[in-house]
Amino acid sequence: MRRGEVLWRWLRTFAVRYRTQLALSVRVSLAAVVALVVAQRIGLPLPLWAVLTAVIVTQMSVGRSLKATADYLIGTLGGSVYGGVVAVVLPHTTELGLLAVMIVAVAPLALVAAIRPNMNVVPITAIIVLLLPSITHGSPVESAVYRVLEVTLGAVIGLAVSFVVFPSSAHRLIRRSASHILDLMARALAALLAGLARGLDDDELHRLQDGIGQGLTDLNAIGAEAERERRARLSSDPDTGPLRRTLLRLRHDLVIVGRAAGTPLPASMQARLAPPLSIVASAAADFLSASGRALVASAEAPSLERFEKALEAYDREVEAARREGLTRVLSADAAERFFAVGFALEQMHDNLKDLQRVVREWGPQPEEELVALR
């Protein structure tokens, strides 16, 4: 195979894998260039702030750009007004006077930023308004006004680029993130249930569930952005709350199974329950992975029938084992772990039904809704 073909395949694979990040790179670059050109055209004294603002507010999704724009504009306006008022009311012609004014301006705004982290630009803006006149030889009022104009220009351009150039919906991101989490859960569940035959140590248990917790944290952050898009009527996708809650409950089910998998079942129980339990694990893992793919593709929810039949077969074997007295020889700890598995699987059944319902809601819309959207 020629080098050109290898390079082309690598570039195509890279572009597909990192298409969201590449789109963000294009948006940020374009926002910076447009902000610089416009700021120079209208004669703003410091185009730097317009460019920086455009870069800052151009985020991964439209919802995140809306939040960044609102926070940055509010923080800039507040810091400019406060810094300008302090500079006018408290003249500072000496170095000691400037230090005193700086303390008066920064201390309360730093407290505001500590209480409200999204307002961390407020003290920075006040500092710029106070110190910039000594560099540009202008007045504090001019410094405050130009600062607001520069930031407003950059924010408007950054937000416009986010809407127009390769716009990325937070709902699309949440579909991909949820699909990734479901794949992690599928692999973890299969390994955890298989571990009941040999036991799993703490390191292996943590390794199996690595990434799921962080994935859920990231999912909640993206969910907040998606809800912001819904409130702004930029998306007609469903509420993200049910999906996030269902994935969190499934994570809890995995934790319960993981605790039970720390100690293997007795040999007599393994011979009886390992085969049906393996089928349950395979069916559940396949359903989780298929649900993730359906979310990304906005497709129909997969069927839960195979898992339900496997769970019924497992329950019959458990009941037969109890009738034969196999559970009576278990220690208290082993019995607790054994019944915890059954409880976790029943809870998982309910949560998988919830997942099926949620995937159905995120799937193809009815024909009448599609007509209305057109």
Characteristic terms for this protein:
374 residues; Methane Monooxygenase Hydroxylase, Chain G, domain 1; 15 helices
Structure commentary:
By secondary structure, the protein is mainly α. The protein has two domains: 3-164, no CATH class; 170-373, Up-down Bundle (Methane Monooxygenase Hydroxylase, Chain G, domain 1). Helices cover 80% and strands 0% of the residues. The chain contains 15 helices and no strands. Helix 3 packs parallel to helix 7 (140-164) and helix 4 packs antiparallel against helix 7. The radius of gyration is 29 Å and the shape is elongated. Mean pLDDT is 83; it is low at 367-374.
What is the fold's blueprint, element by element?
Blueprint: H1 3-17, H2 19-42, H3 47-57, H4 62-89, H5 95-115, H6 121-136, H7 140-164, H8 170-194, H9 202-209, H10 212-231, H11 241-260, H12 267-297, H13 305-323, H14 332-361, H15 367-373
Helix pairs in contact: 2-3, 2-7, 3-7, 4-5, 4-6, 4-7, 4-10, 5-6, 6-7, 8-10, 8-11, 8-12, 10-11, 11-14, 12-13, 12-14, 13-14
